[in-house]
Amino acid sequence: MPNLAEINAMAPAALRDALGGIFERSPWVAEAAAAARPFATVAALHQAMVQAVRRAPHALQLGLLRAHPDLAGKEAQAGSLTADSTAEQKSAALDRLSRSEMDAISRNNADYRARFGFPFIICVRNHDKAGIFAAFAQRLNNAPEVEFATALDEVYQIARLRLERLMEA
């Protein structure tokens, strides 16, 4: 993985290729953040990426949210998650759900997606399984605009952890 000096020297397309997975299946975020260089710290790089999302039109933000997989959903069961998502879901034991937990998460995923139009997103590395189920129950009651902002905040947390892990490697 390149260091900050190398990232600061990259062409926007190269930066997109190097950091395109930080925001789930949304390499446009890394490319848009390139304009904010030079980055003095990893935190500054993350903040530039967050600002790129915040400045993006609503439709692009919604696309970013929709790029995320359902928790323990079909992609997880098929083994087609990104490497980051696989590791994240495993960290919360979402790959080892009981039948009743799997049924509950499937219902929650469907209810959430029907209500908000995008998958339930939570920074699973910050929660255990019980915390994730509790968050589902609480957040299903949010107003759509509140939940949209909450989901984006969770995406920013996920991206920060991914970026920190990548830059440590």
Blueprint of the fold:
Layout lengths: L3 H6 L2 H8 L8 H6 L8 H14 L2 H9 L7 H5 L4 H9 L7 H18 L12 H11 L4 H25 L1
Helix pairs in contact: 4-10
Provide a descriptive summary of the structure in words:
By secondary structure, the chain is an all-alpha fold. It has 2 domains: 4-63, no CATH class; 67-168, UraD-like (Orthogonal Bundle), CATH 1.10.3330.10. Helix content is 66%, strand content 0%. It is built from 10 helices and no strands. α4 (42-55) runs antiparallel to α10 (144-168). The longest helix has 25 residues, at 144-168. The N and C termini lie close together (7 Å). 28% of the residues are buried.
Radius of gyration: 16 Å
Percentage of β-strand residues:
under 5%
Broad structural category: mainly alpha
- Briefly, what CATH class of the largest domain? Mainly Alpha
Short description:
The protein is mainly alpha-helical and 169 residues long.
Top keywords for this entry?
169 residues; mainly alpha; UraD-like; 2 domains; 0% strand; globular
